[in-house]
Specification:
The chain has 311 residues and is of the alpha+beta class. It contains 6 helices and 12 strands. It has 2 domains: 159 residues, MutM-like, N-terminal (N-terminal domain of MutM-like DNA repair proteins, Alpha-Beta Barrel), CATH 3.20.190.10; 125 residues, Helicase, Ruva Protein, domain 3. It starts with a helix and ends in an 8-residue tail after the last strand.
Length: 311
């Protein structure tokens, strides 16, 4: 499943193409990709026709495009946004308007007119149809801070968040992320640290790959109790998480197959930099011991039992 770096790569690619753009046409090819759209909010196509996109924003693995309500069609009561979740195989691909429309996995198409870049098309492509698009109402953030990571924080939308995303904790790259709150949440959790890192109510955006890599970096066993970590160890872990996520971003994310791509269809290459994840049975790059692969929450954990001992 795409994790924070992969979604951030998509957000960064979309931002210059959609910020300030007007949606000129909407084509829903498979309504299963609107499964998280609440009809009570209004008709998906009608709400978007003529709307101007204000920005591209992300929190954790969720992406949203705030809409300028003054330009939106239909019921204009309250701020709205297009909320996207990539699921297992979702892609947001930038196309020219005349790009062939024969992609059998294309589910939704948005045609936009940008004041600088002209006409563009955004294809939501999703082979497995676990991802979705929805128009969702926006509300103020609980703490009054900016809602998520974006290139700009100017505008009324900056401190508003879609209702479908409001329950998700901030991610470690969010400018408003609180290190103190993160430490306090860990101190209250008598669960293994990896399980806690994957809890989107504690911290968002850290999926299976980057949890394994971060824990390997600071020599923490995945089952080490979160509440047992000292503040120093918590600080070290958080620094490792940010370092791993940052390096993955530089390398375009982690792509194991053609489904994980940026808006231009290019794959990331962080997979070549992994130290633990996906390396079961191979020697640990640090101590030479064999990396162990164990079943974990319907997926796998990868760690070195020699230098990631449970304390």
């Amino acid at each position: 499943m795409p994790e924070l770096p992969e979604v951030e790569v998509v957000r960064a690619g979309l931002a210059p193409a959609v910020t300030g753009a007007v949606i000129t046409a909407v084509e829903v090819l498979d309504r299963r990709s609107l499964k998280r759209h609440d009809p009570a909010v209004g008709d998906f196509e009608r709400l978007l026709a003529g709307a101007r996109v204000s920005a591209a924003v992300r929190r954790g693995k969720f992406l949203w495009l705030p809409l300028d309500d003054e330009t939106a069609a239909g019921d204009r009561a309250g701020a709205r946004a297009i909320v996207g979740h990539l699921g297992m195989s979702g892609q947001m691909l930038l196309r020219t308007p005349d790009h062939p429309g024969d992609d059998r996995h294309a589910r939704v198409r948005l045609n936009v007119e940008h004041p600088e870049h002209g006409e563009l098309r955004i294809d939501f492509v999703d082979q497995r149809i676990f991802g979705s698009l929805a128009v969702d109402r926006m509300g103020p953030t609980d703490d009054g801070e900016i809602a998520g990571f974006s290139a700009s924080v100017t505008g009324e939308w900056a401190r508003s968040i879609p209702s479908q995303v409001s329950h998700i904790a901030r991610d470690p790259l969010d400018p408003a992320f609180s290190d103190d709150l993160f430490a306090a949440r860990l101190a209250r959790r008598a669960s293994g640290i990896k399980r806690v890192l994957l809890d989107q109510g504690v911290v968002s955006g850290i999926g299976n790959i980057y949890a394994d890599e971060s824990l390997w970096a600071v020599r923490l066993h995945p089952e080490q109790l979160a509440s047992s970590l000292s503040r120093r160890r918590t600080t070290e872990l958080l620094a490792a998480v940010r370092d791993v996520l940052g390096r993955a971003l530089v390398e375009g994310g982690t792509s194991f197959d053609a489904q994980y791509v940026n808006v231009n269809g290019a794959s990331g290459y962080f997979a070549h930099s992994l130290n633990a994840y996906g390396r079961g049975g191979e020697p640990c790059p640090r101590c030479g011991g064999p990396i162990r692969r164990e079943a974990f929450m319907n997926r796998s954990s990868h760690y070195c039992p020699k230098c990631q001992r449970r304390r």
